[in-house]
Amino acid sequence: MRGAFRRYPTGVAVITAAGPDGPVGLTASSVASVAADPPALSFSVMGTHSARALLAAPSFVVHLLGTRHTGLARHFARSGGERFTPDQGWSTLPTGEPILFDAVAALRGEPLHLVPVGGSTLVVANVLEVFHGPEDRPLIHHSRQFMSTEES
Predict the structure, then answer these.
(1) Sign of torsion, CA 53 59 120 65?
(2) What residues does 43 pair with on adjacent strands?
(3) pLDDT confidence tier of residue 151, bands split at 50, 70 and 90
(4) Bridge-partner residues for 99, per DSSP?
(5) pTM above 0.90?
(6) Domain 2-148 has CATH 3.40.50.300
(7) Which of these, 2, 29, 3, lies nearest to 147 by C-alpha position?
(8) Fewer beta carbons within 10 angstroms: which end of the chain, N or C?
(9) Where do the structural domains in the chain lie, given as residue ranges?
(10) Alpha-carbon distance 82 to 144, whole Å?
(11) How far apart are CA 124 and CA 66, in angstroms?
(12) Of 3, 7, 9, which Cα lies nearest the Cα of 146?
């Protein structure tokens, strides 16, 4: 299964929330549009500390990334990576979630359904707000690497 999906390129996102001990976030390559009306999306997470805090949050922000965010995606993909540093450009929404306004797009959402599947949880979420950032080339995850579409 893993080998098959390593051969399948996907977009890259960082999902953030306000956790009980401060901001939390993780890199995800499973974000998908579910519906346009009402706006909804989905993603899945595994049982990491960041994922558990994100699943407990009442709302979160899904940041769709471009190639200028390759380093950020790497930091949020590994335990102990630099997160929420001043040079990464984070702000906080009035609702408390960390937001990166220079992401290609940022979608603030709230969980609609949490579906346990093995060691993962599928999240289906209502999209409450959409913020558009500057254009960029798509950042994709393919064969365990972050790259632009020109490199794939």
Answers:
(1) negative
(2) 123
(3) low
(4) 91
(5) yes
(6) no
(7) 29
(8) N
(9) 2-148
(10) 19
(11) 23
(12) 9
